[in-house]
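May I ask you to comment on the folded chain given beneath this request?
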Amino acid sequence: MKNKAFTLAEALIVIMILGVVAALTIPALMSSYMRTACANQLKRVTAEITTAAKTIIADEKADEENTANNVDMVGDQTGFYYTKAGDATQGARYFLENFFKHNFTGRANTIANTIYKNSTKAEIGTIPAEYTDCIQTPTTAIICMHYVDDHQRIFVDVNGKKKPNTAGVDLFVMQITDTGSLEDIQNNACGTGNDVTAAASGCFTKVSNNNWRIE
């Protein structure tokens, strides 16, 4: 009886087929893994922000003092914007430096000077330079905060300067409500727009309403 085996040509064909399959599937698997990691990090960071916001509300309510405006709290004047963190000039720095674990502090144009892209891969610039108060957490997330339109607005880059640097994937923008929760600043379609604020708007709601999945 003769032993049958693959010829060299047949073996090479099989290897080529496996290579093509790998080339088609591995990038998709890596992208899926990256998006899952970003969604989990967004959930973690936003939970830290809301916990910190509710903590300062509770702490300063206990003092019965409106420390932002130096008047006594009365009635319903016990929300986030009646704390030191709600102050328009120094609130962001006070909040970030005192209520978060962080490895580094700086301005947006130094700590978060990454060029971001929208969903069509068009460049949309960096986090605006007026975000002068930023931290990087031990998990490498970057949080930048600035008072805009009577709210503390927050940019979150969930994985720091690592790719993909795309609005709605690893970059999000939101604002703190007076109760200490988070909300989107606009109802824009996530990922669209020609600047980081527009492109990142609506993304927090989209991901959280999608059971913390980024698609």
